[in-house]
Amino acid sequence: MGDRSPEALRDSTASSSRRSAAPAKLVTADAAAASFAALTSKLDYLDAADIKRVRDAYRFADEAHLGQFRASGEPYITHPIAVAGLCAEWKLDAQAIMAALMHDAMEDCGIPKSELIERFGAPTADLVDGLTKLDKLRFSTREESQAESFRKMLLAMARDVRVILIKLADRLHNMRTMDAMVPSKRVRIAGETLDIYAPIAHRLGLNQTYRELQELSFQHLRPWRHAALSKAVQKARGYRRDVVERIQREVEKSFAQSKLPVQVFGREKTLFSIYKKMSEKHLSFAQVNDIFGFRIVVSTLPECYMAMGVLHQLYKPMPGRFKDYIAIPKANGYQSLHTTLVSPLGTAVEFQIRTEQMHAVAEKGIAAHWMYKSKGAGGNHAQDAQRLGAMWLQSLLDIQDETRDASEFLEHVKIDLFPDAIYVFTPKSKILALPKGATPVDFAYAIHSDVGDHCVAAKVNGEPVALRTELRSGDVVEIVSAPNARPNPAWLNFVRTGRARSKIRHYLKTMEQEESQDLGEKMLAQALRAEGLQLPDERDENAALWQQVTRWSGNRNRAELLTDIGLGRKIASIVAKRVARLLAEGGQRPDALTLTLGRYASDENAPLQGMVLIDGSEGASVQLAACCRPIPGDAIVGYLGRGEGLTVHTAECSVGKRLFERDSERWMTVEWAEQPTRAFETAISVLLKNGKGVLAEVASAVASAEADITHIDMGDERAAQTSELRLLLSVRDRLHLAEVMRVLKRSASVLRVARVKP
């Protein structure tokens, strides 16, 4: 996407032709030519035809960016050349190098995609398009524009991983050359890099790029802390040089004696990782004892385990600090043995043991598949690269399907960029990688969205556990599902993966719409009955009528209008009057019987066709008010909140009466169904004599009346002779509540029982 933000481009006021360029400009042109010459020296892995195509792309980009300069004063073309150079280090193909050279051409120079297709072919043009930011004029805020541009880039990346490799090279060069920018811009771009681009690099296994992006971001975000840590590390390097050299000598000697050929490299923690460890664990610099470590590179996989044996004979391993990422690789393809040993001086030293191929993947990740492709393999290397990040890339597409809002999409992606992972097993021993803190619900959605949607319980290692239980590496997880189960909104409080979060939200939104549509249809039918008319259905002969109504209401279709009525965004009586007028224009007259029934529907014997009946199965579209907690048998009224659906109050509720005085047109008639589908909650107040076992006595009395206590509030007043309990009871109806209260009154310790009313 051509990160122009770090460069603050300024157009030259001089003529854009080469003939009129000032001598000073010739120097910069020479510099650009020199930098391209440096690029061509890196392209020796391409054949002559590909190098010619790259050269053509360079000439095209040079012409397009003529007269543009970076904030540093260099010709702008030096930036695309540098980006192409980084891609060449990863041995990307000619199309990717060409796209890197032209990655800003569409955005900055106004070159249409059709021209790129014509000159360089569709694959290269698609890569450039995937890297191009969206037009900012379409969006109301900068954040919205950024989120939408990220979404575009990530989806392009899911189709072709080269998009993100070029983007990361682009961002890396921008971060390296950000000193010429104003501090506020540096901070914003560094924050964005740390939040999005560095984790993406990590997720795709590009550890070298990941570490450098983190370091550069830290340098610009926390310059004082970066400088202080840098000095401290330099001092420590001086103090510990002898220790490090001694350990390295002993390790090399031990491998020489074992006749195992290895390469031993000293490794130093990055300043950012030291800072992060100090911040998270509240340590001082002196307490961070694993600043230095070693990397052992061997030839074959069995030699990794042999090398570990040699090391464990040399120094004692620390219990619980061994990790085998070879047997179970990380989600990004990383493989290595990690072991922490106690050195002769008592300090902890980490060793990483891996083969040369593993080392390539560890440092370059997906890019390693281009770097180390075998001769004659054709295009398999690219397929391998796609496969390496396939799971995560597929999850991006899954999230996209359910998320229309770009900011929400970006939020889900950020959730999925966790560097730490745990590895759990299905009952059939299939391994799944999940972020740290993942729960059985995340596991269920990782298997399949249907498994997640119908999940009711879980077993971990054969034992039943709560769905919010955090999983640990090595757990065997089994999901219990039921065909009638559906996602619970409370799951959003503890799920960790973006996939699970987006699937739950999508399901709840869909359900809410369906329920609200059903409610809206009932309400409009009721309002039309008061006009003496029947609700027109969706048949073709009514299509013109509904088209007129939706055009008037500002909705796209009948279903959307009914949903808006159900959510309280539109008032049923007003819509009904409009429908009635249009029906009258079409020659339809009110039916006298329907009119009578509509106006006198409160009569016990009148049929309740179109009436909103409450049976407890309405879902999110109908809420029972928490102030009065109505139960079957109570006289009830319905209040249509703006965008909140229907709220049911008791007829005598004081809160409801105040709402009626303020907003009377939003009230409607509701009735209880004859056969409610579930129990309902209501609140009672119980005055008790204090004594031993009174609470147990109350609970026993409620249970004997076949009711359930769902909540107890005892207040926080000091113990006295009497106490007042507030109980939330689950009862069938008013008669059942009366029975519970009678049983409670018979208890010797109960002085008074009353239903709580607002």
Overview of this structure, please?
The chain is of the alpha+beta class and 758 residues long. It has four domains: 10-204, Hypothetical protein af1432; 225-371, Beta Polymerase, domain 2, CATH 3.30.460; 507-672, no CATH class; 680-755, Alpha-Beta Plaits (2-Layer Sandwich). The chain has 29 helices and 22 strands. A hairpin with a 5-residue loop joins strand 9 (421-425) and strand 10 (431-435). It is globular. 36% of the residues are buried. Mean pLDDT is 78; it is low at 1-28, 134-140, 372-386 and 600-610.
Shape: globular
Structural class: alpha+beta
According to CATH, what is the class of the largest domain?
Mainly Alpha
Kindly report the CATH topology of the largest domain.
Hypothetical protein af1432
* Arithmetic mean pLDDT: 78
Q: Largest sheet at a glance?
A: 6 strands, mixed
Secondary structure: number of strands = 22
Q: How many distinct helices?
A: 29
Q: Outline the low-pLDDT stretches.
A: 1-28, 134-140, 372-386, 600-610
Strand content: 15-25%
Helicity, in percent? 40-55%
CATH homologous superfamily heading of the largest domain? Hypothetical protein af1432
Q: What would you report as the Rg, rounded to the nearest angstrom? A: 35 Å
- Architecture of the largest domain, CATH level 2? Orthogonal Bundle
Measured distance between first and last alpha carbons: 59 Å
Q: What is the domain total for the residues?
A: 4
